[in-house]
Design a protein that fits this description.
Layout: E1 2-11, H1 19-34, E2 41-47, E3 56-63
């Protein structure tokens, strides 16, 4: 397995500019669990709201090797 991309969405006010810091935890988890295979491209975006009134949403694209 290889992590390819991790995307994160953070519900926040327009003035908040630290959305990437909120997604750091997910990136760090991938690195701890998968080691070098956890390295990935990343995007973090602040949004007005998320489904279910969630504060954070994370999505990942993974490559599974047979």
């Amino acid at each position: 397995m290889q992590a390819v991309r991790l995307g994160g969405f953070v519900a926040c006010v327009p003035e908040y500019s630290d959305a990437p810091k909120c997604i750091n935890g997910a990136s760090e988890l991938f690195a701890k669990v998968f080691g070098a295979a956890g390295a990935h491209a990343r995007a973090a975006v602040g949004v007005a709201s998320l489904p279910g009134n969630m504060p954070v949403e994370v999505e990942a694209t993974l490559e599974v090797k047979n």
